[in-house]
Amino acid sequence: MASGGLTLRRYAGGRLLQAVPLLLGVVVVNFLLIALAPGDPVATLLGEYPAPPEYVARLRQEFGLDRPIPVRLALYAWNVARGNLGFSFAYRLPVATLVAERLGNTFLLMATAIALAALVGVALGVAAARRPGSLLDAASTGVSLAGYSIPDFWLAQLLVLLFAVALGWLPAQGIRSVREEYTGLAAALDVGRHLILPALALSFRYMALIARLTRASMLEAMSQDFILAARARGLPERLVLVQHGLRNAALPVVTVIGYNLAFVLAGSALVETVFGWPGVGRLLYDAILQRDTPVLLGILLMVSATVVAVNLAVDLLYAVLDPRVRY
Amino acid sequence: MTTRLLALVLTVLLAAGAGAAAPAQPQSGGTAVVALGGDPETLNLGITTGYAVGAVAASIYSGLVWIDARGEFRPDLATAWTVSPDQLTYTFTLRQNVKWHDGRPFTAADVKFTMDEITGKHHGRFRTAYANFESVTVRSPTQVVIRLKRPYAPLLRLLTVFDSPILARHLYEGQDPTRSPRNNEPVGTGPFKFREWTRGDRVVLERNPDYWNPVYLDRLIFRIIPNAALRVTALEVGEVDQVMDFYLPKTDVDRLRRNPAIRIRLGQPIPSIGFLFINTRRAPLDNVKVRQALAMAINRVQIVTQAMGNLARPARGPFGDGFRWAFSADADYNRLYPLNVERANALLDEAGVPRGAGGERPVRLRLVYDSARAPLVAAAAIIRDNLRAVGITVELQPMDRAVMIERVYTRADYEITIQTFTSGGDPAIGYHRIYASAPPGTPFVNATGYSNAEVDRLLGQAAEVADQTARSRIYAEVGKILARDVPTLVLFDEIGVDAARATLRGLWTGAEARDRWDAVWVQK
């Protein structure tokens, strides 16, 4: 057992080491893409009134934009290596501060959306796989198709129209109520109420994806001999489905959830913007419009690091789900 | 369409009349929530002209004067001012017993420090005024004197909180004002004190009990809602109480008008106009006949009705018609450039760009515009169709704002572009930069390459002369030249629309919707 833990640690360590050149590549490619893209951060920052050339030159120098691109890249990479993500042009605050303020909000939104997608998606998929061709299966397929085809920002607006405007059940936007000030549990419930619509909008697509995949994976697992064996032993159907079917069907589903995390994050940029959810996705969107390069690079780097970490976690999770997998 | 506009105006007048019929006593207490489209980048209004910054910080800081809805100057931190006969010396008497939100007394030294060290160096609009300054002198703790190198007509206009907010010397002295921690926790002398700023979510202000005027609201909250449609939804369901013109999608105005819970104000007192800039450096646009042909081929009325939803007036001259005194019949587009496809065709033939075999002329224009602004997108399509009728091919080039600035102003790499400009309350503040000669490369300054010594001379004069009749004459003269040369074709004068919940009273006493929240109260 101890040696198993050691190899697992060695495997994880190796994977983390592999991530270093990958992240360096991310820094270099993103930096160059942004540096070469049209649009001048200083001009965007200055606003609608002319500034004297000396003033513009001073800003350019302050932001380090007067240096050649390779020098800027090297300096940036060096700073990142020391854990310094730089200073926002627009807010004039450290990028780390800006991101840290919002990371929790994005995490809350993403985690809720993914949990929702996984729970409902798996349930739908299992239910559909139980009786292929049944009405429930058709309904699940229909929901999946809709979920896969509807753009999340459009769904978001529809949800607002229905639940906030027509029914008045839920707030239309934001993360907390403005007029009332809650504390403790009431404050948490208030955030929860604000969370429902954005999480639903963000999760729908993945719910569909997971439902489809679970159904296919379940159908395959349920046709295996060990299921026949389990049934022959007289196990209750629920136990057969969950313990034997689902556990075997779960591997591809977990993989897909992991690999789609980056897409969930991308989707959160849209959903956060639609719902006024103060998260990292929206910060990213604002940073693009304002050409706030340090913020943009900082967030992209963070996203890449998260994806690497989650994929590693998914690989490690295999070993837990499938006793045949050893590292 | 005109009837619709008329109906709109009538509705507003009636609504205003109804309000006047039952004059209610202002009530203390309550919260007002104002929608913003994005975070302010800072809360130091002394270093930026950003709209969101002004929206929040105008209630935290004060200027020397404020401008009411009729355009009159009113005392703010300055209770009185005198101007010397040569227009070179302005003496301000300051309000007594004013305290900063941290309790320290406000004095004339704060005024001098702010102008010399902060707004004069860092504020985009105030910098243009400060360039005319000889000195700012503290004569006593309650008296400050501004001496000018040359007369500057719009000076007072640039002493409001939006252009020269007064900042606390004791908090900013010896620091880089662009990086001061105070920029995120501002201390001012205005009607509301700063309490909390959660970026991406809200800024919360609370009543300043020591303000020189009664303040009714307990709290003034700015809610950040980036999605334009959702800002209107939030107003309709009561999550916010006001959406200012700048943040209000015009397509929703019709719907809001029919909602009895919403009150709207049409026609903000600060004129702003939409232009078609014509790059005069590029053939055949260097030929005035071609530019005049564009003016006759482009249907300004169609742009107003179809692209602007009637929330604009078809433009009538190089400075629009928002400043009546700066408008002259000699420069009237209706007379000079009525829609006339035949005449436009003839002018183009004369200019040496005849139609080819396919009916097309050898003129291909790239039309650049900000793709995020729906009315401009619609206007661009109309212009393309209009110009196709005279054989000119237009290639639409929508792009995001940052790229647009670079293409139009930094590189002048375009043939025609749609731009909107606010006057800032005076043509000399907002519009001169469009027409005065300037080397290329500066954002929001002359992008057409037009240069005319006579125009430069007249614009210089117009900025210096204080007497309005004399200014009128100068603008008539320069307007005539600009209307003839058409370096830019003004397309429309915008009609601003502000919307608010009907329960919010005392709104819009200032020329700016962002100003005078001390007077606002909630009807319970």
Structure write-up:
The complex is a heterodimer of chains A (327) and B (524). The radius of gyration of chain A is 24 Å and the shape is globular. Chain A contains 13 helices and no strands. Chain A has helices spanning 2-36, 41-46, 53-62, 69-81, 95-130, 135-149, 152-166, 184-222, 225-232, 237-259, 261-275, 280-290, 293-321. In chain A, 35% of the residues are buried. The mean pLDDT of chain A is 86. Chain A is mostly helical. Chain B has 524 residues and is an alpha+beta fold. Chain B is 31% helix and 21% strand. Chain B is built from 17 helices and 21 strands. In chain B, helix 8 runs antiparallel to helix 11 (341-350), helix 9 (300-307) packs antiparallel against helix 12 (374-388) and helix 16 (453-464) runs antiparallel to helix 17. Chain B has helices spanning 2-21, 51-57, 108-122, 124-130, 169-172, 228-237, 253-257, 288-297, 300-307, 333-336, 341-350, 374-388, 401-410, 427-430, 432-435, 453-464, 468-485; strands at 31-36, 65-67, 73-75, 78-83, 89-94, 133-140, 143-148, 192-198, 202-207, 219-224, 242-243, 262-266, 272-278, 312-314, 364-370, 393-399, 416-422, 488-494, 497-501, 504-505, 521-522. In chain B, the strands form 5 sheets. Chain B has a 7-stranded mixed beta sheet with strand order 8-9-10-1-11-19-12, with helices on both faces. Chains A and B meet through helix 2, helix 5, helix 7, helix 11 and helix 12 of A and helix 4, strand 10, helix 6 and helix 13 of B.
